[in-house]
Design goal:
Elements lengths: L3 H8 L24 E11 L10 H19 L2 E11 L4 H17 L3 E9 L3 E11 L14 E5 L4 H5 L6 H8 L5 H6 L6 E4 L4 H12 L1 E6 L11 H10 L6 E5 L4 H11 L3 E9 L4 E4 L18
Parallel strand pairs: 2-3, 7-10
Antiparallel strand pairs: 1-4, 2-4, 5-8, 5-9, 6-8, 7-9
Helix pairs in contact: 2-3
The structure holds adenosine-5'-diphosphate (ADP) and magnesium ion (MG).
The site of adenosine-5'-diphosphate has 13 residues, from strand 2 and strand 3.
Amino acid sequence: MPSEFDIIARFFSRPARHAVRGVGDDAALLAPAPGMELAVSTDLLLEGRHFAPGAGPRALGHKALAVNLSDMAAAGATPRWATLAIALPAADEAWLAAFAEGFYALADRFDVDLVGGDTTRGPLTLCVAILGEVPAGQALRRDGARAGDDVWVSGALGGAAYALHDPRDAAAAKRLHEPEPRIALGERLRGLASAAIDVSDGFAQDLGHILQRSAAGASVEYARLPKHAIADAALERRCVLSGGDDYELLFTAPQSARDEVEKLARPLGLPLARVGVIREAAAGLAVLDAQGMPLPLERGFDHFAA
Ligand code: ADP
Ligand code: MG
């Protein structure tokens, strides 16, 4: 059985490309470029809560990093460095090799260095911290939405939640297990979007976070929401409005930026749908059906909800 230090050396010690010092010291050393701010975020994945026991290790390696990259996308930051704290029930080498492969494959695509972490025995737990760079003052945030702004969503919603209902839908399973962080979109939205968030807990709840932080309301047309194909209409509504884990970007932008936002879709190869409008806070959040009637909104995901 490999020791803790064998595990680090064999699976988590690839050389860093743009860190002053990476894995192997007590602290990594990073040098953000002049004029850049550091964007920092962390996400914890717990077996039995965020993923099913026995989940495939390669997809887990991907997802542990992807959910963190998605936070960089929502901040309009360029991801640069990550750390990985991992608790493992056993030193299973085949598991570790596949996990590391999934993690590094995604890290390589976005030129992110794994620069440190911690490795311990315990119930399977994955905690990634991500650091990125963003030009000073240009990070996207949740509190900038203003009445009259358009509401936009990238890609399609509901696929990840639907995967739990139909295990035969391979596209939905991919959305759930191997989400694609919208990094390039986040970078292009600097200076264009007034507010942004990634859809991790469900469209209605995540839009609610923007509205709360921006002291605003919104009305959204359900028909305009980009949807994963789901045959059952009631299930579709639940997956699209309250399903989590899609990791699309939900953002607002002034109407004057409409053409520029529309023009991003083609070079990014990513559909961008204009789904509604920001209103005064008193209007609250309304998602309207084809007759203009508000749909009932379920709460999205909350770890502490009864
Ligand atoms: P310390 O005891 O000083 O915390 P460790 O012995 O835990 O250091 O780790 C040794 C080195 O390996 C450190 O640079 C640490 O950041 C890195 N490291 C440990 N676990 C991981 C991991 N899972 N992924 C990446 N780097 C790791
Ligand atoms: Mg340590």
